[in-house]
């Protein structure tokens, strides 16, 4: 069946590529995807699909019911938002909105799911219901959470939910997945050190120096990874900004200095450990210098943890499209995905589809100004979605 899907979709390739490039040319940030959501709803309705708009503000859900009796239902999810990155591809369909671009391939994810909608609407020989979930605001603006809080799985019941993401460093024609933690939890820490400040030239001995505390703190952060996180576990702590003082007043010791950064982890235990130790280090290092430390640890999305049964089903679905040899197991990724929230609510799996098109099977990476989704993999993505439906809801006569 799946090669039939690939061949059928190749005939639609110009139309689907045109949709993808149109979305690419008109990027929208999370919770601002008015044009994209309207395009999705219009395309689904043109296929005769039942459409619900405004789920979690700008989410769109298309519902397709199979022709054969069955009570199971599944969700297939794609994201729609872009990033605040100035595009430098020079493509004829490059972003028309300065400072914004589809640098993560969500334009391609949306298009592949629209292609799957076209196939499934015309080929309903399955038992049950498929909900096509077009999610806003994956890039840190709370789209999955908003849809869940708006009753996504109560309004559109799903026995399992699946996600698909392009990976330009993986050759086109291949897929990758892993059971268990696949992507990391992403948290932020904000530490503010407060002292007296003072004159750095004439009376530094009369000041409490927050810069010295900050220097010790930034270095000590990595001891959490090296000496607190178990050696066979994984975590990342990185400082993203250090703000204090004024470059035009180098002789003034600042009274306040703020350090911010990111924390990545895969398990609840390590996540708790990072939060606790960051606070202990900040306060413990500040006290001997007479400095106060205010610590905020803000939890973002959880780890994306694939469920075993759905991981094996997704692997089989991909193998039916490209063959067993082209489906590999990837290492845990320290990037994050808010699809992890959906996997906390329902069993499911998150798959990577290779998009590399360079001479060595790779392309400019995600979140860079030169990235562009590979339109040649659209038929493979559509066929994968069709194969997931076949695996979950039964092949004809199965």
Order of helices and strands: HHEEEHEHHEEEEEHEEEHEEHEHEH
Proportion of residues in extended strands:
25-35%
Query: Structural class, from secondary structure content?
Result: alpha/beta
Shape: elongated
Strand order of the largest sheet: 1-2-4-3-5-16-6-15
CATH architecture descriptor text of the largest domain: 3-Layer(aba) Sandwich
Q: N- to C-terminal separation? A: 13 Å
CATH topology of the largest domain: Aminopeptidase
Structure description:
This protein has 10 helices and 16 strands. The chain has 398 residues and is an alpha/beta fold. The protein has 2 domains: 2-183 and 303-393, Aminopeptidase (3-Layer(aba) Sandwich), CATH 3.40.630.10; 185-299, 2-Layer Sandwich (Alpha-Beta Plaits), CATH 3.30.70.360. α3 links the parallel β3 (68-79) and β4. The mean pLDDT is 96.
Key terms for this structure?
2 domains; elongated; Aminopeptidase; 4-stranded antiparallel sheet; 8-stranded mixed sheet; Alpha-Beta Plaits; alpha/beta; 28% strand; single chain; 398 residues; 35% helix
SSE topology:
Layout: H1 2-25, H2 34-46, E1 50-55, E2 59-65, E3 68-79, H3 106-122, E4 127-135, H4 143-149, H5 152-155, E5 160-171, E6 175-177, E7 180-183, E8 185-194, E9 198-199, H6 210-228, E10 235-244, E11 252-253, E12 256-265, H7 268-286, E13 292-299, E14 304-306, H8 308-322, E15 327-329, H9 339-345, E16 348-356, H10 378-393
Parallel strand pairs: 3-4, 3-5, 5-16, 6-15
Antiparallel strand pairs: 1-2, 2-4, 6-16, 7-14, 8-12, 8-13, 9-11, 10-12
Helix pairs in contact: 1-3, 1-10, 3-10, 6-7, 8-10
């Amino acid at each position: 069946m799946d090669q039939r899907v690939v061949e059928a979709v190749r005939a639609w390739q110009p139309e689907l590529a045109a949709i993808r490039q149109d979305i690419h040319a008109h990027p929208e940030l999370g919770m601002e995807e008015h044009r994209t959501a309207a395009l999705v709803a219009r395309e689904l309705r043109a296929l005769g699909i039942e459409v619900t708009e405004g789920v979690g503000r700008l989410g769109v859900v298309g519902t397709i019911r199979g022709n054969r009796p069955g009570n199971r239902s599944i969700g297939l999810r794609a994201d729609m938002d872009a990033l605040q990155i100035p595009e430098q591809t020079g493509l004829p369909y490059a972003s028309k909105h300065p400072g914004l671009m589809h640098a993560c391939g969500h334009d391609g994810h949306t298009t592949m799911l629209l292609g799957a909608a076209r196939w499934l609407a015309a080929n309903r020989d399955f038992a049950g219901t498929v909900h096509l979930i077009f999610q806003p605001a994956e890039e840190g603006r709370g789209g999955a959470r908003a849809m869940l809080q708006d009753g996504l799985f109560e309004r559109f019941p799903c026995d399992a939910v699946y996600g698909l993401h392009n990976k330009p460093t993986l050759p086109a024609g291949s897929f990758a997945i892993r059971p268990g933690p696949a992507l990391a939890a992403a948290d932020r820490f904000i530490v503010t050190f407060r002292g007296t400040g003072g004159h750095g030239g004439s009376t530094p001995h009369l000041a409490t120096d927050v810069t010295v505390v900050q220097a010790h703190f930034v270095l000590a952060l990595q001891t959490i990874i090296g000496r607190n996180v178990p050696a066979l576990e994984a975590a990342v702590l990185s400082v993203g900004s250090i703000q204090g003082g004024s470059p035009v007043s180098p002789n003034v010791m600042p009274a306040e200095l703020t350090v911010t950064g990111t924390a990545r982890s895969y398990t609840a235990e390590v996540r708790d450990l990072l939060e606790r130790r960051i606070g202990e280090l900040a306060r413990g290092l500040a006290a001997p210098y007479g400095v106060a430390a205010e610590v905020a640890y803000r939890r973002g999305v959880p780890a994306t943890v694939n469920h075993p049964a759905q991981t094996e089903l997704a692997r089989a679905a991909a193998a039916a499209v490209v063959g067993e040899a082209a489906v590999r197991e990837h290492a845990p990724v320290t990037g994050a995905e808010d699809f992890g929230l959906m996997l906390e609510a329902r069993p499911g799996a998150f798959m990577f589809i290779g998009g590399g098109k360079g001479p060595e099977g790779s392309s400019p990476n995600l979140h860079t100004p030169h990235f562009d989704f590979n339109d040649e993999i659209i038929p493979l993505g559509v066929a994968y979605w069709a194969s997931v439906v076949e695996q979950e809801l039964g092949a004809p006569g199965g």
